[in-house]
Amino acid sequence: MSSTSSQSAVYARIRRNPRFAELVSKRQGFATILSVIVLTIFYGFFMVVAFQPQVIGKRLSEGSYLTVGIAFELFMFIFFWVLTAVYVKRANGEFDEITAEVIRDASKEVK
To answer: Keywords on this record (predicted)?
Structure first.
């Protein structure tokens, strides 16, 4: 049996594994939720800039140089880093465990 056909057989077993379908579904759902959150916040901010610029330019307090826009941008920067950390934690935990299980099952069938 050639190496290419052996790899194709392993890939076929991986795709047939119900845990692989679960992994794809969970990962896609999680990525979609995070994407919607990021895009809503990001484009929501730009909609406010476009249609309510006076809100963005408002100072946080009397005599402050910090505006609502700068504070919200800082919030977005930190929030997006936190979302990235959440994704990485889940990817390195739950998703990697399922991936290892699927690969282990596929390699058992090869031997």
So the answer is: Membrane, Transmembrane, Transmembrane helix
pLDDT of residue 90 exceeding 70: yes
Do residues 6 and 107 make contact, with C-beta atoms less than 8 angstroms apart? no
Q: Please report which confidence band the pLDDT of residue 3 belongs to, taking 50, 70 and 90 as the band edges.
A: low
As beta bridge partners, residue 67 has: 59
Print burial letters for 26-57: b (CB count within 10 Å at least 16), e (below 16).
Answer: ebeebeeebeeeeeeeeeebeebeeeeeeebe
Question: CB under 8 Å to 64, separation ≥6 — which residues?
Answer: none
Task: Give the predicted TM-score (pTM) of the model.
Answer: 0.79
Q: What are φ and ψ of residue 67, in 5° steps?
A: -105, 165
The residue whose two tokens read 């979609």 is 32
Total domains in the fold of the chain: 1
